[in-house]
Amino acid sequence: MNNLLGTMPLTFSEDNSLQYLYLGGNELEGKISPSIINCTMLEVLDPGNNKIEDTFPYFLEVLLELQILVLKSNKLQGFVNGPATYESAFSKLQIFDISDNNFSGSLPTGYFNCLEAVMSSDHNTVYMRTTDNNFNGEIPKVIGNLKALQQLNLSHNSLTSHIQSSLGILTDLKSLHLSSNLFTGRIPTQLGGLTFLAILNLSHNNLEGPIPTGEQVSTFNATSFDGNLRLCGFQVVKECYRDGDQEQSLTPSSYNEGDDSTLFGDGFGWKAVAMGYGCGFLLGVAMGYVVFRTKNPAWFHRMVEDTWNLNKKKTRKKVGRRN
């Protein structure tokens, strides 16, 4: 958090004992030097919030003691496939933050399989952030193996398909951000069992159906689900209806969107009633005006009476034929 300019150190000597390297919040440019692998004791690397322009630094995989890796808010780009060189890459990593860059492709499933420290519940702070990138594809099922995860932020990407039900296995999860993606389908009912979840943001996707029940999920308001027009539940003030054994959201044409059939029965809506009333009113005014101008309503009375008698005769004839 200074105004340091220039590049990161280009040379790290062998056999050094550096454990923590915080360079975040400066104006550093260039790349991360591969010679950083000489820092075999390094536990924390944070060059976040700079202007580093590079691809993902795969050479960091050999730093076996690395617990915190923060590369956020730089100009990094390309794929994050990994592991590239080391099968036990990032085995001690607890914080993995590559948010606000230009990474693309699928989420780094290979690394998810290596994060042994995140698969154990022995740590107090464990989180993963890939926010504001260009990741696409599905959330991998193996995300359910990262049982120690407390914060997961995958928002503002182009992730597709359904939200993985395996997220419901992450019982330590306190914060889940999946907003501004392309997720479809229903919200997994398993999320209703995350009793420690304090922050939930699923807004601006294409989700549908009922919002899961559960004591914790019920505490979230409409902002957690904004931008999903086909969701239903009390949080979004849209009722659900049952189709067989499944609940579905009411479509706009059948819920609170001016549907005529809900008021006057099928095929006879308020519009038809209004049109009939309007025509009758205009006819009555016209007749009244004629009577008033002629000041001789007798002819009008005789016309109405003749019409009435004619209708009665027709009715009697029809009844006689039926009998």
From TrEMBL:
<protein>
    <submittedName>
        <fullName>Uncharacterized protein</fullName>
    </submittedName>
</protein>
<dbReference type="InterPro" id="IPR001611">
    <property type="entry name" value="Leu-rich_rpt"/>
</dbReference>
<keyword id="KW-0472">Membrane</keyword>
<keyword id="KW-0675">Receptor</keyword>
<keyword id="KW-1003">Cell membrane</keyword>
<keyword id="KW-0325">Glycoprotein</keyword>
<dbReference type="InterPro" id="IPR032675">
    <property type="entry name" value="LRR_dom_sf"/>
</dbReference>
<keyword id="KW-1133">Transmembrane helix</keyword>
<feature type="transmembrane region" description="Helical">
    <location>
        <begin position="268"/>
        <end position="292"/>
    </location>
</feature>
<dbReference type="Pfam" id="PF00560">
    <property type="entry name" value="LRR_1"/>
</dbReference>
<keyword id="KW-0812">Transmembrane</keyword>
<keyword id="KW-0677">Repeat</keyword>
<comment type="similarity">
    <text>Belongs to the RLP family.</text>
</comment>
<keyword id="KW-0433">Leucine-rich repeat</keyword>
